[in-house]
Model the fold of this input.
Amino acid sequence: MSFFTPLIGQAQAVELLMQAVVKNKIAPAYLFAGANGIGRGLAARCFIEVLFSQDPTAQNRLRQGNHPDLLWVQPTYQHQGERYTPQEAAAKGIKRKSPPVIRLEQIREITEFLSRPAMLAPRSVVVIEQAETMAEGAANALLKTLEEPGRATLILIAPSVDAILPTLVSRCQKIPFSRLDVVGMAEVLNVTGHGEILQNPTIINLAAGSPGEAIASYEQMQAIPTELLQALQKTPANQRQALELARRIDKELDTEGQLWLVDYLQQLYWQQQYKANIIEELEKSRKYLLCYAQPRLVWECTLLKVVANTR
Done:
């Protein structure tokens, strides 16, 4: 149980995983299902520490990210023929117009990784973050691996069982993760040094029981120019202000920032006005942005309609 001590508010998931260890019934594949930022990745790391506990150097290797029997797969961006994780893309300043995905080439790398026996641990482990981003071709390729994983365990991390193909779900043992209550949220944010977020009710409400989402939202908010964020604290007063805000949003925020802003404004404006039509207009803007419509035009239309709906 001590391996799972850092995991807060997920007693059911911990119990299911520990029972598998105690009974020596480790499944070939698991689906860690639940919202982003509630501990699924941390649970995977804790579980791997249990599985690799026979290796005295396992914990150090896991922290350093160089254990030879672990392959951790993240969605990637494609840029000039190279693949980049979100962290790598951000570090290189690569502009991202579409969300990252798990690619067929990455599934092939998993197959190659599992084709050799484990070197130090009793089994190899593969973790696939955001498994819901797999295209059908990649998912079908993974299905073949799940059918014959060999001496290995795969952990798929996704928001729900409905987010990935049923054929994949049927081959995984499902481990449910729940959103945290108020006490759990406060404990995680304080323990991780993010207690100041608790003073921002909009961010807390936006996170909806996910400490990770609260932290990510708070960091995203800090990245938005202060003057722009202040100007958006209330709905635009007139058409001229709406058009000026649209221009600034287009100029000062990348696509990821604009998509976050949609969520933030939905929460903020709902708390202020309780008007469903404003929320609906912002939701439409998200769809248009994801369809690569011209961002300035999207924001102009959206904010002009917000002005009309607040009169």
User: Anything to note?
Assistant: Residues 18 and 92 are 40 Å apart (CA to CA). The beta strands are 29-33, 70-73, 77-79, 82-84, 124-128, 152-158, 173-176. Residues 2-176 form a domain with the Rossmann fold fold (CATH 3.40.50.300). The two ends are 57 Å apart (CA to CA).
